[in-house]
Amino acid sequence: MKIPGKREIKKSIQGYFDNKGQCKLTMSKLRIKVLKLCEYSEEEYSIVNATLRKILLEIINEFEVENEDKEVDMPLPQQEQYDRKVFKLKNKLRELRRLHNHTLKSLEQAERRFETLVNIKDSGESFYYSYEEIKQKNPVIPLILLSDWHIEEKVDPSTVNGLNEYNPDIAKKRVERCWKNIIHIIKNIRHWCTVDTVFINLCGDFITGYIHEELVEDNYLSPTEATILAKELILGGLRHLEDYGDFKKIIVVCNYGNHGRTTKMRRQSTGYKNSYEWMMFKEIQILLKDNDLFEIHVPKSLVSYYNMELKTKTGNKKFTIRNFHGDNIRYGGGIGGISIPLNKKIQIMDKTEPADFNMLGHWHTFLEPTPKTLINGSIIGYNAYAYNLGLPYEPPCQALKVLDCEKGITTTKYQIFVE
Ligand SMILES: [Mn+2]
Fold first, then answer.
1. How far, in Å, from the CA of 150 to the mean position of ligand 1?
2. Which of 322, 344, 340 is closest to 410 using CA atoms?
3. CA of 207 to the centre of ligand 1 (A)
């Protein structure tokens, strides 16, 4: 069976239409003419006939639309007029049905949108809050991390692309700013917390010493001179906290760093015996021994533990702080940063002596690799070592973390900027 396409049929019957779009033949005669174009068997005749009738009606309709404004003057047979009318009406009905469905859909969408808007407008109960003074302030202990001052070391601006400059005069200014900013931060914390006790970790490398050859020619002061200056800067700061901090207790835990050693190589068990810093801490401890405000601890070990007794809502809780300078962590600049070897080290240490919080310096990077570990920035700031390693620039700073006594966890951390 083969029925030609609409265009082919249209072409073959074009001649039977006059210039007004009226067909000179009746529908059945026209159909007989077109039937000749088709190939079909006897059984297929009725299908071909019906299809042809449908196509012809469409074509006639098109001819009429094209010549709509032209006058019709030739009456058509009754059946044909009726067929055409039915066809047109069916088309119109189909179109109207489509339009109707579309309108219904749009209306439904609009109703949904309207409902949403009405719901937003009628959001229910309104709330107005009046200002209220804080009735009960939370007791907290600021954990202050001070380290890596390297006060006698030189940073020549030309070696760090002008990003930093350092010498003992700048060191003195930055240290002064540090102590003063600690008071400002404490005042800020006191807005909604009570602070009676403060915990200070003097975490090493306050001096640079002579541990490398180049430091002998580059340092502004000898290790002993630097130690005396560091001691005075620390004592001055502690006096500042005593005068302006309004504390009931100042706990100071002192850990010596790798730079303060008197020997070329690191000593394991006799590290404290060969450290300018350890000696300095001992002297500070002796000088303040009659002052009840201060509680100064100078451990001999590289890693030290301080047990804080906290009164939490669920009863008394021991909170152990681990302090160490941080040079006992091996890190060669691998991917993932210091965090990976540090976390490994902490896990190992936790197996022997578990701690709730770790404070360390040495890495000159203000960082909190885990919620229970705080690494300090430095006072010396960006230097040739960091610059040559391609480490990101960081403004000189120290660190502070708030220990919430009632919750028994550390919360906010502060970067103590020093310039
Ligand atoms: Mn160090």
1. 9
2. 322
3. 10
Domain-wise residue ranges, the chain: 6-66, 138-329+338-417
Ligand 1 mean position, distance from CA 236 (Å) = 23
Residues near ion ligand 1 (Cβ under 5 Å): 205, 257-258, 362
Q: What is the pLDDT of residues 240-286, one digit of tens each?
A: 999 999 999 999 999 999 998 877 777 777 778 789 999 999 999 99
Contacts of 327 (CB under 8 A, 6+ apart): 257, 258, 266, 362
Residue 204 alpha carbon to ligand 1 centre in Å: 7
Q: How far is the CA of 361 from the centre of ligand 1 (A)?
A: 7
State the distance between the two ends of the chain, measured CA to CA, in whole angstroms: 95
The CATH label, of 3.40.50, 3.30.70, 3.60.21, 3.30.420, for the domain at 138-329+338-417 is: 3.60.21
Task: Report the phi/psi class of residue 140: left, alpha or beta, with left for phi > 0 and alpha for psi in -120 to 50.
Answer: beta
Is 55's pLDDT higher than 60?
yes
Q: What is the 8-class DSSP label of residue 371?
A: T
Cα of 325 vs centre of ligand 1, distance in Å, is 7
| CA distance linking residue 175 with residue 160, whole number of Å | 21
- How confident is the model over 107-154, as pLDDT tens digits? 999 999 888 888 777 767 889 999 998 889 999 999 999 999 999 999
